[in-house]
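Summary for the steering committee. One of the milestones for this cycle was to obtain a three-dimensional model of the protein with S-adenosyl-L-homocysteine bound, which we needed before selecting residues for the alanine scan. The sequence and ligand used are listed below.
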Amino acid sequence: MIDTYRHKGMRKNMLDELRQKGIKNKKVLEAMDKVPRHWFLDQAFLEIAYENKAFPIGCEQTISHPFTVARQSELLNIKKGEKVLEIGTGCGYQTSILFFLGAKVFSVERQKELYVKTKKMLSELRLRIHLKYGDGYKGLPTFGPFEKIIVTAGAPIIPKPLLEQLAVGGRLVIPVGKGKQIMTVIDKVSENEFNKQELGEFSFVPMLEKKV
Ligand code: SAH
C-alpha cells in the first residue's frame, strides 16, 4: 500500500480542517496523521479520500466522516494499554486510529463480508487487533470489562450488555437515535451508577438489529 507525498499533503489539509472544526486533542490528530485513510477505501476514492465525507465501503455501509472519527476518539480519551471495545468495525479506519492511540482493541462487525475483508487488511498492515464477527448489541462478554466502548453505528437504544461490560470508571461513547443521532457519553461511576452527557447531533448508518 502506497502513501505518496500527495496523499500526505491531503492528510495535512484534513487535519487543518479538523482543527478548524474544534478538534484539539494532539494524540488524536497525530494518530489520524499516521493512518492513511485512502488505504481503507476503494481505488475509486483515491483523490477524494481526505474530504470530510462518508464514502461507501460495501454492504450498504459507510466509513465515518473524519470529523466524527476525531470527535469520538477525543471523547474516548484513551490512555495507553486500555482495553477498548468497538462496535461496528466497518473498513477498520476508526479501529486503526484506536490502535495508534495505544489501545488494546477488540472490534465487532455484523456483516460477514466486511469482517473478512477488514481482517485481511489489518493483518496485512500488521496491526494487532482482535476482530470478531458477531452482534454488537451483545458486546463481547468473555473479553470484558472494557475501560472504553465506542459504537460507530446509530443505536436506537443503549444496549444493556455494553453498560454491564464497561469497567467502573470507564466510558461509553454512543450515537443514540433513529434517523439522526445524539452523541451520548456515559461514564460508569459505580457498578450501577452512570453519568450521561449529550453532545450534539451526528448522522450514522443504523445499528442492525435482527440481521439474518
Ligand atoms: N467505523 C467504521 C464503520 C462505520 S459504519 C468505519 O469507519 O468504517 C457502521 C458499521 O457498523 C458497519 O460496518 C455495520 O455493518 C456495523 N454494524 C451495524 N450493526 C451492527 C451490530 N449490531 N453489531 C456490530 N456491527 C454492526
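Key point for the committee: The chain has one domain: 53-202.
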